[in-house]
Amino acid sequence: MQAIEIKNLSFIYSKGTPFEQKALDDINLSVAEGELVGVVGATGSGKSTLIQHLNGLIRVQDKKRASIVVDGMDTSSKKTLRKLRFTVGMVFQYPEYQLFADTVEKDVAFGPKNMKLGAEEINARVRRALDVVGLDYDTFATRSPFDLSGGEKRRVAIAGVIAMQPRILVLDEPVAGLDPAGRAEILDLIGKLKREVSPTVIIVSHSMDDMAQIADRIVALSHGKIVADGSPREVFGKRELVEAAGLELPTATRVADKLIARGVPVKPDVITMAELADELARLKGAKEADNV
Fold first, then answer.
1. How many CA atoms lie within 13 A of 111 on its CB side?
2. What's the CA gap between 47 and 204, in Å, rounded?
3. Edge-to-edge order in the sheet of strand 73-74
4. CATH 3.40.50.300 intervals, the chain
5. pLDDT tens-digit profile of 202-234?
6. Lesser CB count within 10 Å: N end or C end of the chain?
7. What is the pLDDT of residue 291?
8. How deeply is 109 buried, as exposed, middle or buried, from its count of CB atoms within 10 A (0-12, 13-18, 19+)?
9. Per DSSP, what are the bridge partners of residue 221?
10. How far apart are CA 181 and CA 188, in angstroms?
11. Cα(259)–Cα(263) distance, integer angstroms
């Protein structure tokens, strides 16, 4: 089943003015239910414009030619707009800046209250959302979100989105600004969210290392066009195309390429540091065996 179906989507900012700028150019994209898709591209490639179409924050301009269907709903229909925005959970870059309530509980409950749910259901969702992101309800519910650490704030902001139990979760640069430990924690959390809350996940990221590690599929944009679409190994195997799109290859791939250039026979399709470590261990074992 297709969770998202985009056909012939183009978008122009300031259309009809001397300042018009094409952000998307004839995008055709399907996302199957259960996929974790990384959307990558240089600044200005159209990533943010694309994802904002998914819950109607930006509307289709040419309805005669283009269409977007999300979880069976036409995003251009005003009748389904409210349901669409509860179906597609959007976590924007630095979501902790969107916290506003005087307690964590009130902040996380904001979305479910807008869904017109009963008090018992709202409380159950707040408790579950905090539990999923690793924050104890009794410890954090009555605390001010502004007194929390940066990582805790981000978890509260994510809890506020998943409390609405969206079928599709969209995260824009979810690990931006975090230290290595924080990045690892959020990446682990995303896997948990996919398993327990939102089966379909789309991540916008500049980190090819992260995408190599967690994405099922990568969609690369350049100047508003899709220039690559496939598994991380397939996409990163297209070295010249990736670099032409203004992207860096994963660190492990770049290190492997340098080793190969020096005559070290590592596999050329290495994309994660774990794979690179396995390759080096394999070569070391083979060398030791030859010396026996």
1. 27
2. 7
3. 21-32, 2-13, 67-70, 73-74
4. 2-249
5. 999 989 999 999 999 999 999 999 999 999 999
6. C
7. 66
8. buried
9. 41, 226
10. 11
11. 6
* Strands 67-70, 2-13: pairing kind: antiparallel
Q: Are 201 and 169 in contact (CB under 8 A)?
A: yes
Six-digit token string for 173:
């640069």
**Tens digits of residue pLDDT in 70-113:** 999 999 888 989 999 999 999 998 888 889 999 999 999 999 99
Cα 60 from Cα 83, distance rounded (Å): 17
Query: Looking at beta carbons, which pairs linking 103-106 to residues 24 or more positions away fall under 8 Å?
Result: 103/141, 103/142, 103/143, 103/144, 103/145, 104/130, 104/135, 104/140, 104/141, 104/142, 104/143, 104/144, 104/145, 104/148, 104/156, 105/137, 105/141, 105/142
Kindly report the number of other CB atoms within 10 A of residue 160's CB atom. 29
> Looking at residue 1, what is its pLDDT?
79
Q: In the numeric block, which tokens belong to residue 150? A: 């940066």
pLDDT one-digit tens code per residue, 175-201: 988 888 888 999 999 999 999 999 999
Per cent of the chain over pLDDT 70 is 98
The owner of tokens 């297209």 is 238
Please provide residue 225's backbone torsions phi and psi, each rounded to the nearest 5 degrees: -120, 150
Please identify, in words, the CATH class of the domain defined by 2-249: alpha beta
> What is the rounded CA–CA span in Å between residue 73 and residue 69?
5
Mean pLDDT of 122-151: 95
